[in-house]
Protein: Small ribosomal subunit protein uS9
Amino acid sequence: MKEQEFIGTGRRKTAVSSIRLRPGTGKIEVNGKKFEEYFPLALQRTTILSPLSEVDNPENYDLIIRVKGGGIEGQVIASRLGISRALVEQNINNRPVLKGLGFLTRDSRKKERKKYGQPGARKRFQFSKR
Structure:
């Protein structure tokens, strides 16, 4: 029989992260690479694993993370949201803890589109009186 697996999707700016959470030994794979190889900074790794640390020991789960789009920081926050959603899917009692810490909130801020007749979203071309 196939082991129990929980799926969560997280997004931030243009980054999209799909998380597969299953009981295991703490093995983490990101886009086919090792966790430490894909996210070299310790701060990024602790940010991603913070929902797991709050609810349970990260060593009790195996994670398969598929992430695309955006920059590294956007991917980190998207992955954190995906893990939080997978944990809530696993056990609904995790929801109040994760919600209180703000891990279940989707950061909806995106880049504003450039408007015609100006160089950026809000910036205007330099005005010349003469």
Strands lie at 6-12, 15-23, 28-30, 33-34, 61-68. The domain at 6-100 is CATH 3.30.230.10 (Ribosomal Protein S5; domain 2). Residues 72-90 form the longest helix (19 residues). The chain has a mean pLDDT of 93.
